[in-house]
């Protein structure tokens, strides 16, 4: 079998660009949003909850997509998770995702935003879009008071632009990874022992015990004569033990997840849903409407609309695999055994 020629390879590249990477003008983007801004009757139809654009002095845009079913999850709790993901568009625009969790800590997405950057203003747009879209659809106010995210200041400050922040949960998985990057000069034994101590602190369920545990941890490792350990202890105390950055242990926010892993899983599933391809801006927005958000909302619908392949009759059937928002925690036998 002969390998493809240079011309054949270039033809394939060009065909992909023609299909998925057609550059759009700001006017085309504006029209796309305006055409989808009406609140639909169908609870599972994707629509533009809010959009912003600016032509001068430089082009900016922000677009928020949701459905009536997804945005309704905003009334279910007072906490929200948020993050941004990349590698979905050729222009590598950030895609901001967010959702809330039920009493079993299962994530339910609320919507998605496509922006040009990943700044405080962009996250502020995302949170204000949730608030304004919900209130426009259901004619009543909502107010989130707790944020679960990594330690990015842009997410934190963007949330505070819109809501009254009372609890700031720092995703434990991100904290752990950050801590590991500051231990490269340690021996393997030292690293293992220090990380084991920190992991035990993370499991604390009584917030009154956290300061004592931190104090004992510091005192224990200060006895070791090592400049690298001393430097690490200073970093750990300043970065992860001060108010606003210490929300990574289990007892900090009872009933809330201590990580944003559920949201990261959603971000991975977005890439899987589009076969790890990249799209131009409007083609990606179309994918969100016809594929990504459509699947999120249908997965949570109590019924599914199906076409009979023989009679072509449209039928409404029960969704036996519906992802239900659990208002009460489910307790399994294994939970009782572990307790």
The CATH topology label of the largest domain is: Nucleotidyltransferase, domain 5
Q: What is the domain tally?
A: 3
Roughly how many Å apart are the termini? 62 Å
Number of DSSP helices?
Answer: 12
Look at the structure and give the mean pLDDT.
91
Assigned CATH class of the largest domain: Alpha Beta
Going by CATH, the homologous superfamily of the largest domain would be Ribonuclease H-like superfamily/Ribonuclease H
* Binned strand content: 15-25%
Helical content class: 40-55%
Q: Biggest sheet, strands in spatial order? A: 1-2-5-4-3-6-7
Main β sheet profile: 7 strands, mixed
> Measured on Cα atoms, how large is the radius of gyration?
23 Å
Global geometry: globular
> H/E series, N to C?
HHEEHEEEHEHEHHHHHHEEH
Organism: Brachionus calyciflorus
InterPro entries: MULE_transposase_dom (IPR018289)
Domain MULE transposase: 81-178
Protein name: MULE transposase domain-containing protein
């Amino acid at each position: 079998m002969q390998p493809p020629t240079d011309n054949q390879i270039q033809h394939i590249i060009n065909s992909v660009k023609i299909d998925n990477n057609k550059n759009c003008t700001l006017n085309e983007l504006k029209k796309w949003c305006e055409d989808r801004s009406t609140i639909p009757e169908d609870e599972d139809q994707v629509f533009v909850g809010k959009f912003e654009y600016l032509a001068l002095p430089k082009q900016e845009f922000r677009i928020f997509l949701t459905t009536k079913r997804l945005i309704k999850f905003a009334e279910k709790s007072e906490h929200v998770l948020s993050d941004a993901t990349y590698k979905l568009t050729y222009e590598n625009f950030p895609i901001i995702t967010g959702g809330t969790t039920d009493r079993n800590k299962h994530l339910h997405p609320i919507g998605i935003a496509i922006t040009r950057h990943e700044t405080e203003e962009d996250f502020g747009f995302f949170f204000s879009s949730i608030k304004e879209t919900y209130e426009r659809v259901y004619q009543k106010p909502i107010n989130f008071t707790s944020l679960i995210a990594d330690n990015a200041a842009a997410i934190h400050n963007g949330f505070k632009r819109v809501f009254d922040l009372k609890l700031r949960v720092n995703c434990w998985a991100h904290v752990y990874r950050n801590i590991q990057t500051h231990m490269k000069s340690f021996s393997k034994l030292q690293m293992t022992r220090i990380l084991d101590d920190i992991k035990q602190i993370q499991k604390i369920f009584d917030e009154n015990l956290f300061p004592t545990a931190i104090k004992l941890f510091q005192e224990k490792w200060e006895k070791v004569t090592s400049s690298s350990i001393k430097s690490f202890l200073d970093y750990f105390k300043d970065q992860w033990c001060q108010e606003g950055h210490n929300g990574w242990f289990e007892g900090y926010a009872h009933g809330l997840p201590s990580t944003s892993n559920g949201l990261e899983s959603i971000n991975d599933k977005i890439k899987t849903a589009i076969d790890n391809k990249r799209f131009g801006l409007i083609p990606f927005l179309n994918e969100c409407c016809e594929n990504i958000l459509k699947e999120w909302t249908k997965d949570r619908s109590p019924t599914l609309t199906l076409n009979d392949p023989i009679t072509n009759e449209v039928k409404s059937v029960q969704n036996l695999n519906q992802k239900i928002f659990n208002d009460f925690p489910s307790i399994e036998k294994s939970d009782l055994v572990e307790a």
